[in-house]
Amino acid sequence: MSTTRTRGILTSAAAIMLTAAAISGTVAAQAAGSHDQPRANNTESGSRRGTATSLAEAFNGVDRNTTWRQTSKLKLNFPTYHTEGIAYSPDHIFLSAVQIIEPTTKFQTPQNGFDRTPGKGIGHLFVMDKAGNLQKDITLGEGDMYHPGGIDFDGTNVWVPVAQYRPDSSAIIYRVDANTLDVHKQFEVKDHLGGIVMDKENGHLIGNTWGSRRFAEWDLHGKQLSTWKNPNYFIDYQDCQYVPTAQMLCGGITNLPQAPAAGGTGATYELGGMAMMDLKTRNVLRDVPFQQWSTAGHVATRNPFKMTADGDHLTMKVAPDNGDEGNGTEILTYEATATPAK
Question: How far is Cα 307 from Cα 334, in angstroms, rounded to an integer?
Answer without folding.
Answer: 9
